[in-house]
Design goal:
530 residues; alpha/beta; Rossmann fold; Luciferase, domain 3; GMP Synthetase, Chain A, domain 3; 13-stranded mixed β-sheet; 29% helix
Length: 530
């Protein structure tokens, strides 16, 4: 199925059903279809054609969905751009994505889109044919020499009947892979893959017409868009706002009777704080799927349980789609809170491969997780070598994550492959050390990385102290020596103000590579007690 058929079905069968609450503006499926066709006519009138690419650089709003769906109608591929991106990333994506069109909101509060564009090397924007402007039109062209046209413009005529609908196999969306490099890979998905994934996610989480999903992440990333797909596939409502404010989220959950949300643990923690952890604050909220991005929120599942919220751990990636797996809703909390779970598609399969011997491991043994699922990307844009490296001949995607399988459709995520440490011949998950250190008095959060020192890998801990707490390296290491195996004791433990992070569509991700550089620098210094 393609997006046009999906939208037409909802608009025909339930035209007045709400597709999106854009803050407090309710948009029905019939209205969304009319808006989509108007934008499709506007783009076609300007010369946009099948096979073109459009860089979509907007926060969550009606325009984001309408532009995406209009592009899907025409067979135009959307290159999804994070609103946090700045000049280097914007120029890189527009250029490598070979985008002919750009959609942006120059006057959106707090985000200087036009100013950022002015700092982009003009040669990277030379292929642009037009800029679709949402909101107030700027006085000057956002891209010098490139015509801009208004999102609110009325096309001279409706989209001609002679313009065919794009087939389900047409490319629809390009995500960027997360990470800290300046050149992330560009992940391509087609329409039928996206629509089918949305239907599978909706089935797993029981999303049905009349339900409502609070958008806990931006549309521009795999996490947010996969959540939106579940709602669109089921004909449910999406509840959204351009800026994710926890108090606003709490208000929207109550006002619009949200039944589901999918968010990172930091946002869910702040939403609970916004309602003072009161019992049963959201009686209609059936499921809250979460991903653990903030390392210091280990008590979140228990707190959510006390307030009556069913929290379930999730798993996903740009290549496989977010929400490709989730823990069962009826599992005990100690299992339900773990990342991983059962794969959403009935035909999907998972296995774990030993990172040294390459053999497929029996259930329960830790190895690299490989997943074969119908939600898998079509490939990396203009990078066939990387695609071949990521997907084997059987169609399994090498996730780069370590974990163990429970059965052929279920698994438990442990850590990124590069995060596991081989200490004194043992494969050790740094989370084990981090969780112990976080139990120490005065410790707010901890990250442990491994670096090679004097010919062997050693662990180094970085700790953030609680307000007004006094922590010393000797105290932290001393406590570890009394409770952990000697090979797990950090050789150094630094107290720092904050972890280095990189911004992503979903959250701020800790840069473990930067921590490793800091660890090497620390190992070059004498310990305070020496």
């Amino acid at each position: 199925m393609n997006f046009s058929a999906l939208l037409t079905r909802h608009a025909s069968e339930r035209p007045d059903a709400i597709a999106l609450y854009d803050i407090d503006q309710a948009v029905s499926y019939a209205e969304l279809q009319r808006e989509t066709l108007r934008i499709a006519a506007l783009l076609h009138e300007r010369g946009a054609r099948p096979g073109d690419r459009l860089a979509l650089w907007l926060p969550n709003c009606t325009a984001w969905l309408a532009i995406f769906l209009a592009c899907a109608r025409l067979g135009i591929t959307v290159v999804s751009m994070n609103t946090r991106f700045r000049s280097q990333e914007v120029g890189d994506l527009i250029s490598r994505g070979e985008c002919r069109w750009l959609a942006m909101w120059p006057a959106f509060k707090g985000l200087p889109f036009a100013q950022i564009l002015r700092h982009v090397d003009a040669s990277l924007l030379s292929a642009l044919q037009g800029v679709l402007v949402v909101g107030e039109k700027p006085c000057t062209e956002p891209v010098v020499g490139t015509a801009m046209f208004d999102y609110d413009s009325v096309p001279a005529s409706p989209l001609p009947d002679t313009v065919p609908e794009a087939a389900g196999g047409c490319h629809a969306l390009v995500y960027t892979t997360s990470g800290t490099t300046s050149q992330p890979k560009l992940v391509v998905h087609d329409q039928e893959t996206l629509v089918a994934h949305g239907a599978n996610v909706a089935q797993v989480h029981g999303v049905v017409p009349g339900d409502a999903i609070l958008m806990g992440a931006p549309f521009c990333g795999a996490f947010g868009f996969s959540s939106a797909l579940a709602g669109l596939a089921a004909g449910a409502a999406l509840i959204s706002a351009p800026v994710l404010d926890p108090k606003e989220c709490a208000r929207q959950i109550k006002r619009y009777r949200a039944t589901h949300t999918f968010a990172n643990n930091e946002l869910l923690d702040r939403i609970l704080h916004a309602v003072n952890d009161e019992p049963n604050p959201f009686p209609l909220l059936r499921i809250a799927g979460f991903a653990s991005f903030a390392p210091s929120l280990g008590d979140l599942p228990a707190r959510a349980e006390k307030t009556g919220i069913t929290l379930v751990g999730l798993y996903g990636s740009s290549e496989l789609q977010a929400l490709v797996a989730a823990q069962p809703h009826d599992a005990p909390l100690n299992e339900r809170q773990l990342a991983g779970g059962k794969l959403a598609a009935p035909e999907a399969r998972v296995r774990a491969r030993d990172t040294h011997s390459g053999i497929i491991l029996p259930h329960g043994e830790v190895g690299e997780i490989e997943i074969k699922a119908p939600s898998l990307m079509k490939g990396y844009l203009h990078n066939e070598d990387a695609t071949r490296e990521a997907i084997d001949a059987e169609g399994y995607f090498r996730t780069g994550d370590l974990g163990h399988t429970v059965d052929e459709q279920s698994f438990i995520f442990h850590a990124r492959k590069g995060d596991f440490l081989r200490l004194s011949g043992f494969l050790v998950n740094p989370v084990e050390m981090e969780q112990f250190i976080e139990t120490l008095t005065g410790v707010a959060a901890c990250q442990v990385v491994g670096v090679v020192h004097e010919g062997k890998t050693v662990p180094v801990a970085f700790v953030i102290a609680e307000t007004n707490a006094t922590l010393t390296e000797q105290l932290i290491i001393g406590q570890c020596r009394t409770s952990l195996a000697q090979f797990k004791v950090p050789v150094r433990a630094a107290v720092i103000a904050a972890f280095p992070v990189v911004e992503s569509a979903n959250s701020n991700k800790i840069q473990r590579s930067e921590l490793q550089k800091m660890a090497l620098a620390l190992l070059g210094q004498a310990c305070p007690d020496e």
